[in-house]
Amino acid sequence: MTLLYRLLETIPLEWLQYDFMKNALLATLVVTPLFALLGTMAVNNKMAFFSDALGHSAFTGIALGVLLGLREPVLSMLAFGIFLGLAISKVNSFHTASTDTVISVFSSASVALGIVILSKEGGFAQYSSYLIGDILVVSPSEILLLFFVLVAAYILWAFLYNRLLLVSLNPSLASTRNIHCQAMENIFVVMVAVAVMLSVKWIGILTINSLLILPAAAARNIAKNSRQYHFLTLLIGVCSGLIGLILSYYWDASAGASMVLTSACCFFITFLVGHRMRS
Amino acid sequence: MQSHNACGLCRVEIDHLTVKSGKDVLIQDINMIFHCGELTALIGKNGAGKTTLIKAILGQRPHTGSITFVGHNETKAKQPLIGYVPQQLDFDKSSPVSVADFCLAAIRRRPAWLGFSKKDLSQLKDRLTALKVEHRLFSRLGDLSGGELQKVLLAAALEPLPDLLILDEPVSGVDAMGLELFYQTVCRLRDEHHIAILLVSHDLDLIRQYADRVVLIDKTILTQGSIDDVFESAAFQNAFGYLPRERSRQP
Fold this sequence. Notes:
- The complex is a heterodimer of chains A (279) and B (251).
- Chain A has helices spanning 2-9, 19-44, 48-56, 58-68, 74-93, 99-118, 129-132, 140-169, 171-176, 181-203, 208-220, 226-251, 255-278.
- Chain A is mostly helical and 279 residues long.
- The longest helix of chain B has 18 residues, at 176-193.
- Chain B has two domains: 1-81 and 161-251, Rossmann fold (3-Layer(aba) Sandwich), CATH 3.40.50; 91-159, no CATH class.
- Chain B contains nine helices and nine strands.
- In chain B, the strands form two sheets. Chain B has a six-stranded mixed sheet with strand order 5-6-7-3-8-9, with helices on both faces. Chain B has a three-stranded antiparallel sheet with strand order 2-1-4.
């Protein structure tokens, strides 16, 4: 870690002289590729709404942590995120209501539960920082943890991507290839839940879903195959993360929201480019 | 002597098969056998349960009764390789998935986002050339016409060569030329590799031309047998309202 700090100090940028900005930069470099990776499949599977619900359910995770008397609610957030993800995908597999209705029910119920518990005795204000996030509070050990999650995600991605891709195209066809669709979906849901819960504190509940969805959505406007899609998403995700972080420093505003604004700009640019390419 | 398929599948026996969805009976008491080296056509009105039957054979629908894959020596064959061409590929047309991504993701472990080896790509191109869609190798799936997509789906279903090929209404959107090529390819596979083929179709003229056996269902089996037997039957006339000979006499 100290080595990385030294390395960053050699870069002659004013904002990099502060330790909290070095941490924020490293965190951005770890989180954005992770979210880009998961975002490609979340958009393929039309799960934008799903990951939104997952982000919002962080409230309930925090609330459970408070009830259980945990000092750091991250464990209860992880547990609840994974539980909620698997529950949605299970209920969804019964096909009794449409997907967005199912997600909406779970999302509202869990947000409401979280708010009821946290707002008891008027103590909600202390949790409001979760809403917009604060990337400056990230600690080196948390960055390291997320780095391991990133490595694990890439390893899983190398083994499972083709199967996930077939499931996202057509589950019936995938299962004739002996692919267990439900298992694939569950693995993916758990990956998203872990990534979201570990980073929601800095990115913010309100903006975390955009960070997952926007880079992939932007890349999709112009990508023609899986390779282009993957690397464009990665490029857009990391670049808009960095630009957003720098902007937030000069604007003195939320980093998560600045990153989202930047990737939203990327979306509109690629949208226009893609439109011109096709016509 | 005909070369035989790898897993030793000889026939598929379906015995007292019933599929229910809640209280609704979708198909009931289906008993049929279809053999390898034969093209068996499954016909019936809309909503007769053809696709349900196929899903049950694919193992995607819980059912009662049995579906047995029988090998040559009357032994139970291991789970055969099933190639499946769905009625329509219900997918997001804006997906950034190329034909190569789709076909090779199904047979290779190397993740599609790393690209593919030259060897895999050239082999795939040969397979697509046989169906005259090789120019679409790098196109996005969503940019293909209905006919081109069907051929790509067929090419994908044939690798690795299946023991049982299931075609669910495979020819919607295929032009007449493409249709002939499609069926010739399927029939060549039947003759050369002795695979079993189950075909769902509404095109009775094509069935007459290419099928070996016909099964007419409406929730349950109404009649089955040779083309002539089924097409001449009263059940067929009830279901389709005419005899095929009458139609062929029309201008």
